Here is the input.
Amino acid sequence: MNFVKPLSVIYWIRATLGLIIGVACALYVYSMVTVELTSIYTLLTGVSFALLFYMATYYLIKSKYFGRVEKQSKLVTQGIGIYFFAWIVSWTLIVTLFMPSVTVYINNSDGTPVEGLEMWVVAETGGGQIIRNMSTLTGTLRMPLLPPGTYILRLGDRYGYISDQNETLSLGWLQSEGVTFSVPLTGE
Here is the structure.
């Protein structure tokens, strides 16, 4: 009888656990993140989870396969690449699919898109914390990676805020919103 080699089993255990830990990291982001997702703390937390669980896999595998492989160092190194690759791919994919997004349309008062003017949109929390400051030279702007929450969107130009152009949005997971700002035509 030809049995599956222990190193192959270890490889696939780590590949599967990498996917599972990536999903767990995404669920953490889903339930706990209340600040900008590009924060270094979100990344460090995910990396810490991945490393912690990788070390746990060593003890799990050692208890079952110790003495069944030629080199005992293979218990540490076998499947390390696929573990971290599966973790980062599953974590990134799930977080990206669940994140809310806002598409901002900047139109002239006659409804035509603004072209050639530098406008910027600031998304800030109710407490005044600026989350995203995006500039655009065209009429459409997409603001990805905003965590769920309530935001005040303000439209501005190089002179400051266009004060009567504020929109309040409450975003949840898996939600996509569109906001249209209208600016006066030149000469109005």
